Amino acid sequence: MGKNILYVNVFKKNDKRTIYNVAYRDGKDGTCYMKRFAVTGIVRDREYDLTQGKPDSRVLYFSANPNGEAEVIKVTLKPNPKVRKIVFEEDFSQLAIKGRQAIGNILTRLPVHKIVLKQRGASTLGGRKVWFDRDVLRLNYDGRGEYLGEFQTDDRILVVLENGDFYATNFDLENHYEPGIRLLEKFDPQKVWTAVLYDADQQNYPYIKRFCFDPSTRKQNYLGDNPKNQLLLLTDEPYPRLEVVFGGHDAFREPLVVEADDFIAVKGFKAKGKRLTTYALDTINELEPTRHPEPADTPAQPEEEEPEDLDPDKGKTPGDILDELTGQMKLF
Asked: How many whole angstroms separate alpha carbon 91 and alpha carbon 89?
């Protein structure tokens, strides 16, 4: 494939969501441009030029964004006594998406020392609809299988296995999921889950717990450390009503109806929970709830986090950067 490769990936025909953000210099000492484009079709073994084709043109910055993300870059110019501002930022989200052959917008007419990523950005194309095909255990964007929802750049997928393990992933099509999936859905950090399980460490008494899943990519288990713990019921109903049917020598007892929200508070998924009963248990049934969330009960949306500053020169003043470029040393 040659040397000095910036990016390699499998090409997908008619892919209008993968957007390439590029900054390049036109010729040896020419103007620097920035542009955004998609590549929907190519001819095999034919070379295409990201620049205008002048000799000594050079790509100064490149990124490939599978969901049309647009980042902020920081541009550092070469030292020039006539230029007071040698460092400035540009946001790719301000550019329209055009064809690969487009010239682009002028970034600067001055010589550029370097361009670095300042902040990762969100998608400018809106959310991406994602489906999960259980037959092949893969995600797709083509409408095959279970519809998971519309995903933004930072959204995650929650995966819960039959053995109690759970973890979170992104919505990349390269993800492959193992068999034994109990549920796979778009992760909601505010959703409260209710689980009933036999605790092997507590004489196999049934315990109930309410919790929120953690968005970690590392596998964790909400049933506890003992592999003999057994799940009886898992529900995401906000106000679940459970019918406890007794068996064995306690079969004569009337079934017990439990309002889970009143019975136990929401805690972490590692909490042991609360013992549901000491009588012999036959089955646990989920009944139709008598309460439903009201608008006032809807949890407030979390505040948007401040974008992470990825600038390698973070904390340095323009004067510090200029001194580094010119080789000046400070006494203090």
From this structure: 7
Answer for the pair 206, 277: CB distance below 8 angstroms, yes or no: yes
Taking the C-alpha atoms of residue 92 and residue 72, their distance in angstroms, rounded to an integer, is: 6
Q: Over the stretch 23-68, which tens digit does the pLDDT of each residue have?
A: 999 999 999 999 999 999 999 888 899 999 999 999 999 999 888 8
d(CA 30, CA 50): 15
Q: pTM (2 decimals)?
A: 0.67
In order, the DSSP letters of 148-169 are: EEEE-TT--EEEEETTSEEEEE
Q: Which of 60-69, 109-118, 318-327 has the lowest mean pLDDT?
A: 318-327
What is the C-alpha radius of gyration for the chain, rounded to an integer number of angstroms?
Answer: 28
Q: Give the model's pLDDT for residue 330.
A: 59
Question: According to the model, what pLDDT value does residue 202 have?
Answer: 84
Q: What is the pLDDT of residue 283?
A: 92
Q: Exposure string (b/e) for 248-274, b if CB count within 10 Å is 16 or more? A: eeeeeeeeeebebbeebeeeebebebe
Question: On the CB side of 305, how many CA atoms lie within 13 Å of its CA?
Answer: 8
With vertex at residue 328, the alpha carbon angle to CA 323 and CA 329, rounded to the nearest 5 degrees, is 110
Find out whether 184 and 161 touch, Cβ atoms under 8 Å.
no
> What DSSP assignment string belongs to 164-225?
SEEEEE---TT-B--S-EEEEEE--TT--EEEEEEEGGGTTEEEEEEE-----SS-EETT-S
Judged by DSSP in three states, 74 sits in strand
